[in-house]
Specification:
The chain is of the alpha/beta class. It has a single domain, classed as Glutaconate Coenzyme A-transferase (3-Layer(aba) Sandwich), CATH 3.40.1080. The strands form 2 sheets. Strands 1, 2, 3, 4, 8, 9, 10 and 11 form an 8-stranded mixed sheet that branches.
């Protein structure tokens, strides 16, 4: 199976109303060319799961600015004023999730778990509408798993089987999201032949990756 893909094929996969995960932390580790593909495809009304909404011109920020997102699930939005503006105007549904909880909800989605129990948020607005469970006398919130139809990831290197290596902090949410989506598309800086990556260096196994877009490709 040839996993190397084009912008055109990526655009054909994206449809209105999808739930999409995007790796990255303040734009670092976000697949910027795949975000561009989303913009050029015209896809809209998406639910976006990401650590944050980055800045207006970087990361997933342009998706907010261009009003392609109907709901965002993220740990913070403060660096992108457009997100807050749309939220206050009632034009964008924003679900704020504590960062560690967000990571564990994605991990639960990727592991087939029914959710995670966490004390984070008990007694605050975070607990509104959520089930509370007491374990050994301590209250926990039941946080349900997160999954997406498509995950858009960024890696430093891939072989043609899709085995991935990330570059330092750009790793962030990408490996977790590779587990929690029906279709995983990764933008890579470098592509090598199968066997050129030491198995001990693989951070995301190729079996999880469906499509590879080589950065700067057409």
């Amino acid at each position: 199976m040839n996993k190397i893909t084009s912008m055109e094929e990526i655009s054909s996969i994206l449809t209105d109303g999808m739930t999409i995960m995007a790796g990255g932390f303040m734009g670092v580790g976000t697949p910027q060319e795949l975000v561009t593909a989303m913009l050029e495809s015209g896809v809209k009304d998406i639910t976006l799961i990401a650590n944050d909404t980055a800045f207006t011109g970087t990361g997933v920020g342009p998706l907010i600015v261009n009003r392609r997102v109907k709901k965002v699930i993220a740990s913070h939005i403060g660096t992108n004023p457009e997100t807050g503006k749309q939220m206050i105007a009632g034009e964008l549904d924003v679900e704020l999730v504590p960062q560690g909880t967000l990571a564990e909800r994605v991990r639960a989605g990727g592991s087939g778990l029914g959710g995670v129990l966490t004390p984070t948020g008990v007694g605050t607005v975070v607990e509104e509408g959520k089930e509370k469970i007491t374990v050994d006398g301590r209250e926990y919130l039941l946080e349900k798993p997160l999954r997406a139809e498509v995950a858009l990831l960024k890696a430093y290197k891939a072989d043609k089987a899709g085995n991935l290596i990330y570059h330092r902090s750009a790793r962030n949410f990408n490996p977790l999201m590779a587990l929690a989506a029906d279709t995983v598309i990764v933008q890579v800086e470098k592509i090598v032949e199968i066997g050129e990556i030491d198995p001990d260096e693989v951070m995301t196994p190729g079996i999880l990756v469906d499509k590879i877009f080589v950065q700067g490709g057409c």
